Amino acid sequence: MLSGKKILLGITGSIAAYKIPYLIRMLRKEGAEVQVLLSPFAREFVTPLTLFTLSNREVLTEFHDPKNGKWHSHIDLALWADLMILAPLTANSMAKMVNGQADNLLMTTYLSARCPVLFAPAMDLDMYKHHSTQGNIRALQARGHVLIAPTEGELASGLCGEGRMEEPEKIFETIKTQLKKKESLTGKKVLITAGPTYEAMDPVRFIGNHSTGLMGYSIARSFAERGAEVFLVSGPTNLHIDHPNVYRIDINTAEEMYKACLKLYDDTDIAVLSAAVADFRPILQNSEKIKKKDKPASIELENTKDILAELGKQKKDQVLVGFALETEDELSNAKKKIKNKNLDFIVLNSLKDKGAGFRSPTNKITILDKMGNQKKIELKAKQEVAEDIVDEVLAYLNI
Ligand code: CTP
After folding, report:
1. What does the angle CA 83 – CA 28 – CA 34 come to, to the nearest 5 degrees?
2. What predicted TM-score, i.e. pTM, was given to this entire model?
């Protein structure tokens, strides 16, 4: 199953490093190529000779090998890989990843990697529980990296608790699942809308909303990481997305979003409309700034086009997913929207749920499908919620 797959394996300075030779053996047995990168401190825990013998490749720590004058290019290494895994990952190296600190070959290679990244932390329980470590884990997850969570048990310190690196067999299974996922949507085209729209009154003022775009960007990343070609139609946001499969189309208004979506829709396999599109806009848009003394007595509004409803009307064999943000009668309103807009799924978030909705790094949703099934997803990072949404669509497509 792993024949020809290229895996970068980064080992950092934790006692759990002694388990990694088993992982290399399993990967090699299934046909993967494994390039080991050791942090300088990791060499104290596991010998390069052991790792070389099992991986059959030179084990790298330094940029430069003074014995034969060889320079190890972190860029070539990073581009070579189908997947990168950091196991065990110490609290220190994790903090470096979060901050982009490139002070050794392993960290520099991580910064250049475009492939999916997995990380399996290992540390003492209090370090693991610490606010900064937990924040760093969330930051890496928000980048789309996959956490292989440590387990509870006896730690090298003699203390008992959460912090033991997951066993090599489980890490191996996660690597296989991720590699399979990476190709599951190759050849599929996905349309995502994200962020708010701004409806201008004049060149300075607009009607907008609190959407940051994070949910939509997370969904775009999830689809892209599974091999799909993603067209992300984005309202104004401060977010960036750097993935070779994502094409971003920036718009400001609902009308611009509507036009961009319609252009792309015919050729789309899956469309997920997560944008918080303005439902109405000022009828009059002044070309000059309205002066204070000319304050309008009222602002007259007109409806924008409902993009989701229009895509529902034009639907052929696309899978169409809408979002619903409700404040009352949530489930029954969401069900009505599935029917009225000809959707396959609707993702319901409630403003009443703490930690869900606008400006929050987390979300709590219910996914409803047109057959009447409901799936509640507990509160978690938006990137993880995005994975769940993509999983539902894939299950529906029997992928
Ligand atoms: N949406 C859209 N175009 C609009 C308004 C909304 O495509 N002009 C999409 C959103 O991206 C979201 C879904 O419609 O996927 C639901 O939006 P929501 O505001 O919850 O519902 P509405 O259909 O606008 O209905 P209402 O405001 O009555 O709840």
Report:
1. 40
2. 0.84
